[in-house]
Amino acid sequence: MKVKPKLKKGIVKVKAMAKNEMITYNQAEKKFGDREKADFITHLTGTVNGETVIDISTSQFLSKNPIFKFEFKGDNFKKGDKLLMNWVSRLGKTGKGKGKIK
Amino acid sequence: MERRKFLSLTLGALALAVVPASVRAEDFRKLKPTVWTAHTVDDAIKNMYGTTDAIDEGVKLTTPDVAANGGAIPVKFSTKIDAKTIAVFQDANPEAAVCVYAINKYSVNNYDIKIKMAKSGTITVIVEGKDGKLYRAKKTLEVALGGCEG
To answer: Residue B134: in which H helix or E strand, if any?
Structure first.
């Protein structure tokens, strides 16, 4: 996934995009004839230097290739530190990405 | 002094290594599975927080009044309340829950996501304060073209 963190005035602003179709139960039924083939991101986390800065549990109703914008306090972090993000989907797919704080 | 410093540093590093971030994270799909299967917003909020009593203040929620594309509706929300969790619900899709944020000590509660809605409906954002109270913001919007393919 793409992760773009930017530090400004003590706050890190992040724009992150995960690549996932976010297939809902209804879409799975229509497409594959099987609701159980629904596959979407269920949990997404982000850490800097081992500290959790974002933690979201999600459902099928986020858009396809969802974009997450969020902010966190930057006092303990500096430019050049890396924000690592991970997600896991309903059927166990995973994705990750990292971005240097600019 | 040197030795003490070395020890504490090593122990700290060990503690971090033993507990990976994924374990410290709170996955509300596992902690509260019924939130995600609830069909109405009220049921989902009740399953999440045990009550639907909420105060209509302190939460800012911005969405377009009319969404041309129900597949990606921008939803912005923020709060200055000292929060524990923030949850987003809507009433246009088969299930109500959209996402739940576990707030940490670094959080600046200003978020922006894109969601899907099958038809026109109301988005509800609930902020669970550290004071144990729920705070709520609602916004009803029109969806021109549904985003869940029926």
So the answer is: strand B134-143
* ipTM confidence: 0.94
- Closest residue of chain A to B149, computed from CA coordinates: A27
Could you tell me if B148 lies within 8 Å of chain A, comparing CB atoms? yes
Q: Got the DSSP string for B51-109? A: ----BS-SEEEE--SEES-TTSEEEEEEE-S-EEEEEEEESSSSS-EEEEEEP-TTEEE
Q: Of all residues in chain B, what percent carry a pLDDT higher than 90?
A: 75
Task: Please indicate whether, in this complex, the C-beta atoms of A50 and B16 are within 8 angstroms of each other.
Answer: yes
What is the model's pTM?
0.87
List domains and CATH numbers for chain B: 25-146 (2.60.40.2470)
Task: List, for residues A23-34, the tens digit of each pLDDT value.
Answer: 999 999 999 999
**B22, closest residue in chain A (CA to CA):** A45
pLDDT digits (tens, 9 = 90+) for B89-122: 999 999 999 999 999 999 999 999 999 999 999 9
Of B71, B90, B108, the CB nearest to A73: B108
CATH number assigned to the domain covering A2-100:
2.60.40.10
